[in-house]
Specification:
The protein is mainly alpha-helical. α1 packs across α2 and α6 runs antiparallel to α7. 29% of the residues are buried.
Length: 198
């Protein structure tokens, strides 16, 4: 009975934590909307300076990774630990590829002088400066959450290999999966706000 209560408490705790994460990004999205209404033309111009290809590839990467972590949980429930390990390794690999893509995307922006407090941004239209400031804050914060998610998934992988995650007790993996789904969901909002703005 105590074990069930602990699992329920852990799940409720995770959902409360996810709610605070939603509030954090929700506040940033509201800030984005407020500035968009004031500097719509500058935001549209800024969006055209971002690489749609990078955004699309990263969106596909996260959607596939979200499927893979769900498949890993299903594999555990079906008593197929080996399959779960493969799906988890795939999810972690895709998360790393996402970060590598983001590194190259940011690197290119820095090379052409688009970075926080860059002279070109500071001395240019205020809306463009705000757009790229929000871009770096939101995508940077999202990247940090990707790293946290990768740590959680890696811990789950170690537990799975050591048989600490079983069909009867997979709460650690389930919570890591919930967190990863949230990270993916946030990106589904980030992508159109910055890359598809017209």
């Amino acid at each position: 009975m105590t074990g069930k209560k602990d699992k329920l408490g852990g799940k409720i705790g995770m959902w409360l934590f996810l709610f605070t994460e939603i509030m954090l990004f929700g506040g940033l999205f509201v800030l984005y909307a407020a500035y968009l209404s004031r500097y719509a033309d500058d935001f549209i111009a800024g969006g055209k300076e971002l690489s749609l290809n990078f955004g699309l590839v990263n969106t596909l990467i996260l959607l596939v990774s979200s499927f893979m972590v769900a498949a890993a949980i299903t594999a555990v429930q079906r008593k197929s630990a080996r399959t779960a390990v493969l799906f988890l390794l795939g999810t972690i690999s895709l998360g790393i590829i996402f970060l590598i893509n983001k590194y190259f995307e940011w690197g290119h922006k820095f090379e052409i002088g688009i970075y926080p407090n860059a002279p070109d941004l500071v001395n240019g239209p205020p809306g463009r400066n705000i757009f790229f400031s929000l871009y770096y804050v939101i995508t940077g914060l999202h990247g940090l959450h990707i790293i946290i998610g990768l740590v959680l998934l890696s811990v789950s992988l170690v537990f799975l290999v050591r048989n600490k995650i079983t069909p009867g007790d997979y709460a650690v993996l389930e919570n890591a999966g919930l967190y990863w789904h949230l990270v993916d969901l946030i990106w589904i909002f980030v992508f159109p706000l910055f890359y598809l703005i017209i």
